[in-house]
């Protein structure tokens, strides 16, 4: 396989990751270093994340190039996540990439972190191209999109408060699990019965129509409060320890139900029965299973393996390639942005 050789760099949160991608799908090298320092604090500490990126980025890139048997001078271009994310963390990747691009005299492409998540599945599945309905669920975002083609995105719904991953992380904390809460809640939920407790499905009501504001939007803070109240009651009754797996299962079921219900509304309304799941929460097996079950045999779920669903440099390289081929180049004064408009995204018309 041939094509431009790109280095992708990801440092928006707590993974330091680099990848060398040749053409569209030939992943020559890929290293993801997860920062475990945050486990001590039960959540990502932005200053520590930035420092850990700074300490490790040279080694991560060197190991990636080594794996790819590629030298820096073999690269045709560099791509880096410029936002959204933690500003100090982003700045490490952006500064590194700018310096390298300048020293090597190679073009640099700025990548939007959430657009990069859209490119996770296509690295493994050559069919994972638009059109699709995309549910992007991460620690900071919950977005429901319709993508008729790459670069053209219609925003159908988003969260009004907490992101889906944030809700998993907070519930994990309430149940005494380690950070990140998502995988830990999923593991605990496997031992529990989801129907043991009934939890609310925020913004899902029977009489809603597509004209309602809440038709596609999400809210997870009420669900999180319901879990907090339940946990307090069980703790007072002295039954919390015994009930923890059931609480995890009931929460996971409620969150997955809301996510899939809204996604299926998008499928029905757009007539597009290809659903892409992206972002860290898409590593959740219940979410994958339930999406496939409700879509049925005529639909397809486009999804990456967990390694490419969580934050990684390969998706940044692939999204960067798309932008690179469109002729996009970052200016030499490129900066990092904690919040950044999603490129090509327009709001749905009702
Ligand atoms: O995309 P990502 O790696 O980083 C951000 O861009 O935020 O997503 C991280 C989020 C965390 O909130 C984490 O708890 C959640 O994804 N997560 C999961 C699972 N694996 C990771 N949530 C539910 N089930 C999982 N298996
Ligand atoms: Zn992410």
Explain this structure to me?
The protein has helices at 46-67, 87-104, 113-118, 164-174, 181-189, 221-237, 240-270, 285-295, 306-309, 313-325, and strands at 5-10, 15-22, 26-34, 77-83, 108-112, 132-137, 142-149, 152-158, 274-278, 300-303, 345-347. By secondary structure, the chain is of the alpha/beta class. The protein folds into two domains: 5-119 and 309-347, ATPase, nucleotide binding domain (Nucleotidyltransferase, domain 5); 130-303, ATPase, nucleotide binding domain (Nucleotidyltransferase, domain 5, 2-Layer Sandwich), CATH 3.30.420. A hairpin with a 4-residue loop joins β6 and β7. α5 packs across α7 (240-270). Bound molecules: 5'-O-[(R)-(carboxyoxy)(hydroxy)phosphoryl]adenosine (KG4) and zinc ion (ZN). The site of zinc ion has 6 residues, from α3.
Stretches with pLDDT under 50, minimum 5 residues: none
Report the total helices: 10
Straight-line distance between termini: 44 Å
Within the largest sheet, what's the order of strands?
10-9-6-7-8-11
How many domains make up the 3D coordinates? 2
Spell out the helices and strands N to C.
EEEHEHEHEEEHHHHEHEHHE
Q: What's the total number of strands?
A: 11
Name the shape in a single word. globular
Mean pLDDT: 97
CATH topology label of the largest domain: Nucleotidyltransferase, domain 5
Structural class: alpha/beta
Helix content: 40-55%
CATH class call of the largest domain = Alpha Beta
Q: Give the cofactors and ligands.
A: 5'-O-[(R)-(carboxyoxy)(hydroxy)phosphoryl]adenosine, zinc ion
Indicate the radius of gyration in whole angstroms. 20 Å
- β-strand percent reads 15-25%
CATH architecture of the largest domain: 2-Layer Sandwich
The main sheet comes to: 6 strands, mixed
